[in-house]
Design brief:
Helices cover 74% and strands 0% of the residues. The protein is mainly alpha-helical and 81 residues long.
């Protein structure tokens, strides 16, 4: 697959490579796609949560916050990897 980077994003991608945060443009794009995938997964979980609320299912706030913190930590670990 060949992908063109929009001209307005090229300086950003090149800066990330120059700072050695990524080795190649492909690495930058892959990380962006991983983050988008994580965002979509979270969006689905939020939709499911609203559906459960609409059905009258309730979860204690402590459990919700603990789960959210776990998800955030997982995303942060993936970003560092």
């Amino acid at each position: 697959m060949t992908v063109d980077i929009p001209a307005d994003l090229e300086p950003f991608v090149q800066r990330l490579i120059a700072e050695r945060r990524f080795l190649t443009e492909s690495d930058v794009l892959s990380e962006g796609l991983r983050l988008l995938q994580a965002q979509e997964s979270l969006r689905g979980a939020v939709r499911q949560g609203f559906a459960q609320l609409d059905e009258g299912s309730v979860v204690p706030a402590e459990m919700v916050f603990a789960k959210a913190e776990e998800r955030i930590a997982a995303v942060e670990r993936a970003q560092r990897a």
